[in-house]
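As promised in the previous annual report, we have extended the structural survey to additional targets. Below is the entry for Bahd acyltransferase dcr.
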Amino acid sequence: MPCSTMEAVTLLSKCTIFPSQKSSLSDLKLSVSDLPMLSTHYIQKGGLFTRPPFSITDLLSLLKRSLSQTLTQFPPLAGRLVTDSDGYVYISCNDAGADFIHAAATHIFVRDVIGSIDVPDHVKEFFTFDRTVSYQGHFNPLLAVQVTELADGVFIGCSVNHAVIDGTSLWNFFNTFAELTRGVKRITRQPDFSRDSVLISPAVLKIPAGGPKVTFSLDAPLRERIFSFSRESILRLKDKTNNNHKWNVDGEIDIAELMGKQSNDPFKISDGKVTTLTWLRNAVRKTEAEGITENQTAEISSFQSLCALLWRAVTRARKFHASKMTTFRMAVNCRHRLQPKLHPLYFGNAIQSIPTYASAGDVLSHDLRWCAEQLNKNVKVHDNDMVRKYVEDWESDPRCFPLGNFDGAMLTMGSSPRFPMYDNDFGWGRPIAVRSGRANKFDGKISAFPGREGGGSVDLEVVLAPETMDGLESDPEFMQFVTGY
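The corresponding structure token record, generated without further manual editing, is:
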């Protein structure tokens, strides 16, 4: 008998999905990047899709079968956490299975999910394991998939233990799940389960009685909104940050602008003849050379430009005294930073959080380029040596990750616009939108998604105190780059 669990969503059924083949993978020890996540919520991410051209009954049968096949490729996600007598935490690949939930919200339309300014509260109900702390993976499945019927669509949401998986691993799982659902016989991106890097440590994390707790308030009033930035807007912002005006939106020399600037120059060569093409070719070569020099000295990426824009606008909206120290924290992927490098599809967490500090006065008195340069410097120096230093620092004081906005002046950027979030075609088309649940959200938590149209477009999922969000929405420097508001 269906039971109503929440105001918007009705739970229809729940079952356990087991791998299609038994696992031969040994227990996987949690790393120094995994263990700090035991105090964080399960990651909740999912896709909004149009209704498939077949029945919901057939869809559920198809998804259950393909999830079983996917768990065979990702055996840790069908396992449980275990702690041995020495205090080490492992993933036991014991084929205990993952949860599969079927729910209905047939009074909600696709437009109700994506059409409002703020992300509506009912989106949070498209995920299970709501506010479940990752340490609870000792007693609960490490993965749950919830399929929610809508009036004219379907939402496929994944809740995954954050001590087991980061964004890179999550989207590799989700994409593989989609591939197998649409009938692919051989998956294209095989995960790597090796545990032989510096991230695997002899240090023991002491867990308090009853398990760790999240380190931020669960009851603070918040607003959540998606801000979209088109490819053209992102390129314009990058140009502004790099003080570079010689390039068009396709990243090519802007010939019209170049000719306009040089229109008063004589078109003469050594024999006295005027040759526009010769002049133009030489001018382009000169400009390209100048552009290379500028780019070599600047090296400010589009994403760093966007982060700097947000840092300035939120700092303005929070109305700090000039002496107030602000923090912009960015999660970085360490797979390619370590030497020797980890496999690009290394399964687990391989992320570190890089803080950049600046007073509110410095953030607002300097220009966008200065703010972006502070972020750029910290990302550039986070090499193999720095990754290893972070590991050593953690080993000297093993602790869970303190997630939150402790002094009211922090921004924490997670996820990545490089993640292939829109590659999840389950057989009837790509997602209309990507959304997340209530997990790990507090004032100042930002998540970066690729824009659905691709090409370098970016969506920022921004969570702020209501009065700060009001200030951000009225900030002209920020809003001039936002698309379609």
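The chain has two domains: 10-182, 223-230+300-480. Confidence is low (pLDDT under 50) at residues 1-6, 245-296. These points will be discussed at the next consortium meeting with the crystallography subgroup.
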